[in-house]
């Protein structure tokens, strides 16, 4: 029985997935060769691959670039007041809306330039805020 269980477990966890895993590994190594991994400690590599879990939300606000707004505009001040009152989970949901991920890239906020833009809509009360993740831009009607 033990031999059967050992062979079954080996098949399920190793042999049955060998070909798909090798295909995955080949593609992964094409995009991220192992020679590049060796410069990182395991914890650093995890951050590079996953992104940072902790976000300094005040730094996000400080580094935000505005288009059609000034940081002192009432709409922007009201936005940040409400934003900073949100629970962490909701803030991460906003980050996911803005960037497509609820984590910041490994190079931190200094490398990522986020934008808040005025979409200059004819009747802003008729529109909801929206985002363009490829441009890291959040469109906030007045």
Automatic annotation (TrEMBL):
<feature type="domain" description="HECT">
    <location>
        <begin position="1"/>
        <end position="142"/>
    </location>
</feature>
<dbReference type="InterPro" id="IPR044611">
    <property type="entry name" value="E3A/B/C-like"/>
</dbReference>
<feature type="active site" description="Glycyl thioester intermediate">
    <location>
        <position position="134"/>
    </location>
</feature>
<dbReference type="Pfam" id="PF00632">
    <property type="entry name" value="HECT"/>
</dbReference>
<protein>
    <recommendedName>
        <fullName>HECT-type E3 ubiquitin transferase</fullName>
        <ecNumber>2.3.2.26</ecNumber>
    </recommendedName>
</protein>
<dbReference type="GO" id="GO:0000209">
    <property type="term" value="P:protein polyubiquitination"/>
</dbReference>
<dbReference type="InterPro" id="IPR000569">
    <property type="entry name" value="HECT_dom"/>
</dbReference>
<dbReference type="GO" id="GO:0061630">
    <property type="term" value="F:ubiquitin protein ligase activity"/>
</dbReference>
<keyword id="KW-0833">Ubl conjugation pathway</keyword>
<dbReference type="InterPro" id="IPR035983">
    <property type="entry name" value="Hect_E3_ubiquitin_ligase"/>
</dbReference>
<keyword id="KW-0808">Transferase</keyword>
């Amino acid at each position: 029985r033990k031999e059967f269980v050992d062979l079954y477990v080996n098949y399920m966890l190793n042999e049955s997935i060998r070909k798909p895993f090798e295909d995955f590994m080949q593609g992964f190594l094409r995009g991220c060769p192992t020679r590049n991994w060796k410069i990182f400690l395991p914890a650093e590599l995890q951050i590079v691959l996953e992104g940072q879990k902790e976000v300094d939300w005040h730094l996000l606000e400080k580094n935000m670039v505005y288009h059609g707004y000034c940081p002192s505009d009432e709409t922007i001040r009201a936005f940040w007041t409400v934003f900073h009152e949100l629970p962490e989970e909701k803030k991460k949901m906003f980050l996911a809306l803005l960037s497509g991920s609820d984590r910041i890239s490994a190079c931190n906020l200094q490398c990522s330039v986020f934008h808040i833009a005025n979409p200059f809509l004819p009747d802003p009360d008729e529109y909801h805020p929206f985002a363009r993740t490829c441009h890291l831009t959040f469109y906030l009607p007045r």
